[in-house]
Amino acid sequence: DVAAPVSEFVSVMLARQARWSARTGGGVTRPVALTSSAVFAVSDDGTLTALGLAGGNFLWRSRPGSHPFVTPPVVARSAVLAGAQNGAVWALDAADGSPLWSTTVGTGLRGVLGISDDGALVFAASDEGDITTLDATTGKNLGKVLLDAPVAHGPIGFGANSWLAVLSDGTVRAGTGEQAGWTAKLPAAPSAASRP
Hints:
The chain has strands spanning 9-14, 17-23, 33-34, 38-42, 48-52, 58-62, 74-76, 79-83, 88-93, 99-104, 109-115, 121-126, 130-135, 141-146, 151-158, 162-167, 171-176, 179-185. By secondary structure, it is mostly beta strands. The strands form 5 sheets. It has a 4-stranded antiparallel sheet, with no helix packed on it. Strands 7-8-9-10 form a 4-stranded antiparallel sheet, with no helix packed on it.
């Protein structure tokens, strides 16, 4: 399970047998991202590390700017993206870790970065209670949707240009780019007295 937390090591399991383990330089408590040749992990010190998928060999380590990465990494086409503590979304070349672009979407980031199915768009939730859509190739801001409450989970990209997020008030919101879509309220959990 690639989303399971690991501590100071990234391990690859195949056929229930450990194939390799590698140190990342710090604890890894966020989900990792994979391509056909590499695994990407953000460690507790806010550094993004790339390891070879076949044998765990060190490929590169990066922490551009002065703020640590705080979101799990995601892959969009040939870039690996992660959000920094200051609200900036960074795109790094997946092959060598060199910065491709950086765009600030708020004063801080919440949750994870979402990616459209085709990898063309990135969706980022800020601490200000909005979701910004970015072009994954250039980092250009394509629009922002102001939400009624901060994002608790997500955003998750789906389709060519859509996102879905669960807000802190239990509302589920969907949208496309700068257009808000549908809203649904999650039902309250039954009380202990009402359960059989």
